[in-house]
Model the fold of this input.
Amino acid sequence: MNIILLGPPGAGKGTQAGRLVSERAMVQLSTGDMLRAAVKSGSPVGLRAKAVMEAGELVSDSIVSALIGERLDAGGTDAGVIFDGFPRTAPQAEALDLLLAERGRSLDYVVELEVDEAALTERVVGRFTCARCGEGYHDVFKRPVKAGVCDVCGSTEFKRRPDDNADTVATRMAEYRAKTAPILPIYEARGLVYRVNGMADIEEVAGAIGIILDKGGALDAF
Ligand code: ADP
Ligand code: ADP
Ligand code: ZN
Done:
């Protein structure tokens, strides 16, 4: 099963992808995470992407599509892939079709997380992650059970993204509206789009996504 999680910054894509990874044998492919790893390593891709990401603009289609292709070829993705933060433009959506077709695969679902834009800035500026295992948290909506200690791995070190500030969020939101939202009709025409209320709490959103994915499983059984 190959699915896309689509929604603006802070919609909950990473949070829900993480749950699908731990609950089902699926692999999360986050171009944001891949780009941040490239920036950290100082690779040529990272050097090109750093300033673009800090400004909240989009990295070039060719760079992100190449990252996805490399990841698909690295293996371990046969049970299913969750595309998180990709595709973000019409050319990326076309590239993804090709990348999948070349590998004998196709898309099963596009899950759109519908959110209230006014709530997203608060979600993004309050976001932090465990520095060791990457578990996602929020200052208000998802605090570690024991203050200052990661629920998953016990680490006491956390980090925040440099682009998770109110100014950059506004640019990222505008990019989403201008370049990403317009790809939805392409998938709608193919009958792939399912909508979930992303304003519900994390558990409820996970439940709604689970129902969509299991419906596919049930149909396959006939
Ligand atoms: P995205 O990957 O779409 O940018 P994240 O999954 O990182 O979004 O979520 C952004 C922030 O909002 C995180 O701090 C996360 O803990 C929190 N969050 C995610 N889903 C919800 C939700 N349904 N309700 C409240 N907060 C949420
Ligand atoms: P969010 O979780 O807030 O949606 P991401 O982690 O997906 O953000 O992306 C962070 C930044 O990385 C983006 O603002 C953009 O600069 C870059 N980026 C990530 N994915 C893509 C993509 N598919 N195309 C272009 N740029 C991307
Ligand atoms: Zn941790």
In short: The beta strands are 2-6, 27-30, 81-84, 109-114, 127-130, 136-138, 158-159, 193-197. Residues 7, 9-15, 123, 126-127, 136-138, 141-142, 201-202, 205 surround adenosine-5'-diphosphate (ligand 1) (CB under 6 Å). DSSP finds nine helices and eight strands in the chain. The CA atoms of residues 75 and 203 lie 30 Å apart.
